[in-house]
Amino acid sequence: MATEIIKQLEHVRRKISKKHQRQERSRIGQFLTPAPIAHFMADLFQRDIEDVRILDAGAGGGILSAAAVEILTSRKGRLQSIEVTAYESDKQVLPYLEDALARCEALCDESGIKFHSNIRGKDFITDGVFLSEEGLFSGDGDRYTHAILNPPYKKINSQCKMRRLLDSAGIEVSNLYAAFVWLAARMLESGGEMVAITPRSFCNGPYFRRFRLDLLKMMALQRIHVFESRKKAFREDNVLQENVIFHAIRTKHTPLYLTISSSEDDDFHKMNIRRMPYQRVILPHDRDAFIHLVLTDDDKDVMRRMQRFGLPLDELGIEVSTGRVVDFRAREHLRSQPEVGTVPLIYPCHFEHGFIRWPIVSNKKPNAIVSSSQTRDLMVPKGYYVLTRRFSAKEERRRVVAAVYDPKRINVPLIGFENHLNYFHARGKGLSSNIARGLALYLNSTLFDQYFRLFSGHTQVNATDLRKMRYPTREQLIQLGTYVNKHMPDQEIVDVILQKVCANDG
Q: Do 277 and 292 form a contact (C-beta atoms < 8 A)?
């Protein structure tokens, strides 16, 4: 239950989030935290200490700081003083933040707790990098005991000043939220706690690898909460994002277990909660430190069933790459229909029943690309390839959708694969027929799709994610391929075939 100050600030949040300001907050990638989420986040803090120093980076209207103050003062413990440092660069919001912290001061006065606040109306990234470089946080007494964050969600331009600033501090990230979390973690004292709500995307993928490695080196995860619906955590702001809330402690000692919970939305009374071995969530020998979020018994069963597949792609002699043709960059070479001097250009729209149908009648996508010295490097030689869509359509039940490119159906010497596709190949050349068919069947299985979703925090299907998956043996792939003829079997039959060919007691 949200308590009095948080309830009052929820009205303020809604006022700030009205339509005339929502567009601006969307532009800067920052969305204000709803009261139930703020209360849940603050309640994850565990420490019982006398002097609390809270960092609220990207404070907005101050609801997270207020939630932390209200939760901490309500507990019976040793608390003697609270100091809040709140960063907010939006001048329109600063008066609301000042009011929130004034309410916090009044509450602390009633409880006999000393309170001090410091509002910094400046960019947190610039200040945080400066403070780190100057060594102003060199002593434990100068660091924060708590950090609570709902950082902005926005990509960082590779050429901007902020990118260069972060690079100079050794912070290699592609999104603002990861930079905020990384800097805040550096500013915590030993034993300090962090609670943050962020996109789930940092849990896997190449763009967040350095961030994950450094974060998990500094911090030990204690709790991860997953929102099952992409629409409901920030539904008033129309944010379509898979969000997580995580609680971590600044320590080099990882716990034996961590808690993973989930809810459809911000009704935390309806949670699914699991206590998982830490090494089942972050595999000890995984050089990429992917975070596997196992939420249910079904998820646990998927993990168990996938253990039978032990081979990485490279041991199979198979590679996966992203299609080389970026259509808007090659626009002058594209043709609506094949003609003399062109080769097929394959898009996701060419997928049909597990194979590639080409050409098709389409007013949206071209069917061909001119073959010339300027485009030759964008093409691959004739052969069997397995293609997957990088982006799943809304009506698709599965995130991973695969199709076979059969050179007997499209008898041409060269092909172009558009950038919205990944393609499986053997060192740049085609696969054998049965390997390609068997691989496509495996990729189209319910089991593969379910496992992929366990560690993939975004709707894209990237080549790097596909490399991280485990695959059947060559012999099993060949056997699977014998079941694929003119088209891919129906989903139920695909799953039965996989179980039949690859079942074992492991």
A: no
